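Thread: Newbie trying to understand structure tokens

Hi all, I'm a second-year student working on a class project, and my supervisor (Dr. K.) asked me to get a predicted structure for one chain before our next meeting. I've only ever worked with sequences, so writing a 3D structure as a token string is new to me. If someone could post the tokens and maybe explain what I'm looking at, I'd be very grateful. Here's the chain:
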Amino acid sequence: MSGTLVLVRHGQSDWNLKNLFTGWRDPDLTELGVAEARAGGKALAEYGIKFDIAFTSDLVRAQRTCQFVLDAVGQSSLETIRDQALNERDYGDLSGLNKDDAREKWGEEQVHIWRRSYDVPPPGGESLRDTGARVWPYYLTEILPRVLSGQKVLVAAHGNSLRSLVMVLDRLTKEEILKLNLATGVPMVYKLKADSTVASKEVLGDMSGAH
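---
Reply by user tm_fold:
Sure, no problem. This is what the structure looks like when written as tokens:
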């Protein structure tokens, strides 16, 4: 029997709150972000899952979310692998800018294209397709084999790195994935078949803020 893959987007960060493009910059969680991460962990504790290993990105907001989840399920010292392959999409020259200021500088339409197209990167940054190009190989070589061997695996990462995974798991088109926003701190529990396709998916918590 193949295992379970749980995906959790990090809680609100300081720069989410300030409406800044974050990307590979490294702000911490806000108080709300900590509460969201703990709530996600509580939902997983109530679900009754115990993990074999955890994966997170090279950025502190995802790492702390991962730790809050593990604390909540009683596995504070679980082996956790950090890798920048799971980092947020790199927003390049937009990183650190207020989204309204970016619209003033480049125009509403251009910024919308960078934020919401599949394959048009901002200057010096990555498109969603570029993000997937580093997330997917890492998933196939490091994460998926563990799930298929029967392990229960936690991945705490970012909106766009996780959207890249959800796109593959849920078999979404590039048009569909652009409309998908993942709620912060809300776990998605995937059970996979032996052929790596999805047997079931459960969302633990309130997704009303996701769209």
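A couple of things are worth pointing out once you decode it. The first strand starts at residue 4 and ends at 9. Residues 58 and 84 are 5 Å apart (CA to CA). Feel free to ask follow-ups in this thread.
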